[in-house]
Design goal:
By secondary structure, this protein is of the alpha/beta class. The chain has a single domain, classed as NAD(P)-binding Rossmann-like Domain (Rossmann fold, 3-Layer(aba) Sandwich). Helices cover about 45% and strands about 15% of the residues. Helix 2 links the parallel strand 2 and strand 3. The protein is globular. Pfam families: adh_short. This is Oxidoreductase. It comes from Nonomuraea aridisoli.
Length: about 300
């Protein structure tokens, strides 16, 4: 079993993933920005879950907008847990509104949370993973980078940047035996705080100029929900279950991408074309060895455990 650090575990996918992995027998470090303040109720929910179901779950403060906080969280896991071999990059925030009405500062903040935040966590954990000779970086991305629905422009842009950063980092992590997995959930309108807590555009004057489109924005959630396949429960639990399935797979056997889409938008077909195009391009450059994680011999692994146990 793995020792897992999850970012953004206070609610939604991160919270449910912490529960699922604890139940599966992993050692889970669930991180959130303010576990002894605004997130205290969520911290207690997770601790109560672990007490009721058995398993090892701890909560650690981690604000992805701070390199110091990311470094401290990883240091705490290594000091108190002894090892760390899986990081789940899940923290993120949603913006809803007219793209022009978001100021440059608005969008910079979103990129800071959704993109640079993951990079900060990688910078905190990669020295350890390289040193131990392996591990897994699992990113909770989004099908939105393919579907690109209206009125979510800055968010879609941030998830595209997040995805590209994950792919680029994978090239450099693979030679050290560090696997990368990108889990791409489709639209989920219940069971998370994404829509209720979404940020609206700061420039009210520009938003007013788009007033004739307000009825469309108002039914954005309803329009998304109408896409769900009848009889299927569009719950974030499915994403947590998929992450649990992936982490049970052996080193080298984890998928680079996987899609959980209750709208059946056809994202898998686009992913397949993009994968073949990218891999062919990288092979033509002569860098094909960067496309897959290097296998490590058992003798090379630290005594604390295998990289993807």
């Amino acid at each position: 079993m793995s020792t897992v650090l999850i970012t953004g575990a206070a609610t939604g996918i991160g919270h449910l993933t912490a529960q699922a992995l604890t139940r599966a027998g992993h050692t889970v470090w669930a991180s959130m920005r303010d576990p002894y303040g605004r997130d205290d109720v969520h911290r207690q929910e997770l601790l109560d879950f672990a007490a009721q179901h058995g398993g090892t779950l701890r909560v650690v403060p981690l604000d992805v907008t701070s390199q110091e906080s990311a470094d401290a969280a990883v240091a705490t896991v290594l000091r108190d847990g002894g090892d760390l071999d899986v990081v789940i990059q899940n923290a993120g925030h949603l913006y809803v509104g007219y793209t022009e009405a978001f100021t440059a500062e608005d969008i910079a903040h979103l990129l800071d949370v959704n993109v640079i935040g993951a990079h900060r966590v990688n910078r905190a954990v990669l020295p350890h993973l390289r040193g131990r000779g392996g591990g897994t970086l699992l990113y909770v991305g989004s099908t939105i980078i393919v579907t690109t629905p209206p009125f979510l422009g800055p968010y879609a842009a941030s998830k595209a940047a997040f995805d590209t950063l994950a792919v680029a980092t994978a090239y450099e992590a693979n030679p050290f035996g560090i696997e990368t997995c990108i889990v791409m959930p489709g639209a989920i309108t219940k069971g998370t705080q994404h829509f209720p807590n979404a940020t609206r555009a700061a420039d009210a004057a520009v938003s007013a100029a788009y007033a004739e489109l307000d009825p469309l924005v108002a039914r954005n959630e309803e329009a998304t929900s109408a896409l769900f396949v009848p009889g299927v429960d569009p719950s974030p639990v499915g994403v947590a279950d998929e992450i649990t399935r992936i982490l049970a797979l052996p080193h080298g056997g984890k998928p680079f991408r996987t899609v959980i889409d209750y709208t059946q938008a056809g994202v898998e077909a686009v992913n397949d074309v993009a994968r073949r195009t990218r891999e062919n391009f990288v092979h033509r450059m002569g860098f094909g060895e960067l496309l897959t994680p290097r296998q490590r011999h058992t003798a090379d692994l630290p005594v604390t455990g295998s990289p993807n146990s």
